[in-house]
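Forwarding these from the shared drive since the link keeps breaking.
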Amino acid sequence: MKPLFSKGILLSVLMFSLSNCKKDNSASAPTSAFDIDLTSNAALGQFMTNNKGQTLYFFSNDAEGASTCTGACAVLWPPFTADLSTAKLNAGLHATDFSSIALANGKRQVTYKGWPLYNYSPAGTGGYNGSANTPEPAGSTKGDGFAGIWFVAKPDYSIMLANKQLKGLDGKNYRSDYSQGDGSTIFFTDGAGRTIYTFSVDSFNINKFTKPDLSNNKTFPVYEQELAVTPSALDKSLFGNITVFGKKQMTYKGWPLYYFGKDSLRGLTLAVSVPTPGKWPVAVKDVADPKR
């Protein structure tokens, strides 16, 4: 009986397999001297990557600092894990901005300014034995803007987007229209996840809350930020600044922006019920223009 494969065919198959092994090995090898690096492109500006050059992302649902991407979500968006005690950082990054949180599998997911970090592994790209999707290649940022709640991890966001339930100081849950009830709202935070508000009484570029002696600034501190570094879902040209008794306050569409002093933790939205629901709404992308 003749063999099914000739020696030549067997040799070709072997060479092809070895070639594939080499490609697989090179694809997984580090391409950067840094475990967490910085890169940039014309569309998105500067953002973080891992040591393979793969983009790192923030998830708007993680506004409170815990990872809310599990199960099937974690297949599409695998958590970025690393040993921070030995991790090498790009000189433009600061070790104090990084921490980690424990995952159910015992690994530790890296966080930046409280935001858990993820990579993107697009659905349908297959994987080894079908167990996982293939990570997007170095330099790709196709995960940015996904579902309006996934964004490249920029090191210097002055505005980020949170997606979560609004809960007031009165302990009640509120919808986006400030009626009582359950449902997520997408709203502005600063780069560390602290909620940002508007004051419904203000007019276009006019702060009607802050007193000249700043005696009430601890209650609703003006958001002092000049440079607008925003997620791609927002038009940064709509941000500006006004001067309020010596302080530079950021505005959006002419609405002065504020913190709430009692929001002691990231992700809190206590002001939405103060003194009545909707008086101090969270800042949102499609807020109506203020009175001029």
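-- next protein --
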Amino acid sequence: MLLAALLCGPAVAEDIDIFAGTTEVNTNLPNIIFVLDNTSNWSRQSQQWPGGLVQGQSEVKAIKEALAAQVGKINVGIVEYVTGGSSADTDAGYVRYDLQELNATSQLVLNGILDKIYADINEPEEKRSSSNPYGDLPWDFYNYLSGSDHSNNGAGTPASLADANGYSSQWDRFEAPLGLDDACADTYMIFIGNNANGSIAVDDSINTAALKAAYVAAGKVAQDALAGEGGTPLAMPEFTTVETET
């Protein structure tokens, strides 16, 4: 809801510039962006997935199968942790697959990406180290939607994997995928984490300040705990079931 408030609030002159999306987004369709936690935990087999698959393989297999029936019904994109540079660089995120309509052509490209992740799940370019903070990745998700600067000036972005269409300046500034006419369309982040019970690092002070600024920009009051400060943060629901009658 914070994201919606930020993107759909009253526009001022400088705000108009952030909506410069040039991708093939169908404005009549909802936007689904998968944010993948591609830390080292996603190549573990301890979760006992069927067929001996590791965590990340099961995730991309499920995404591929779920989207098979959604051609022509949604716009879809993928954001992940960066995997290049030093360990300090990899707290940030990058656009793996720029938001666009899922049609027969784009589905082939997307499936190719998912298949590569599946096959190369243990390769360094497909995963980053563990003990990751969870602040910069969703922050770069917002920076992507708003066409803002990358949280780490593009450092660590794997050029061989990043989708150039998601950037206006490679790799330090994102290209907003949503234009003025669809900035307030239904946009959903589907975050798939792999470290809920592991060692989650505290976000740095720069990220904390950025998150607070986002709340202020939306006319909201920041939660009583952000990035290691005192107080109790909002709980994230582990599972939600929605039932409808047909």
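Confidence is low (pLDDT under 50) at residues 1-21. The longest strand covers residues 93-101.

- D.
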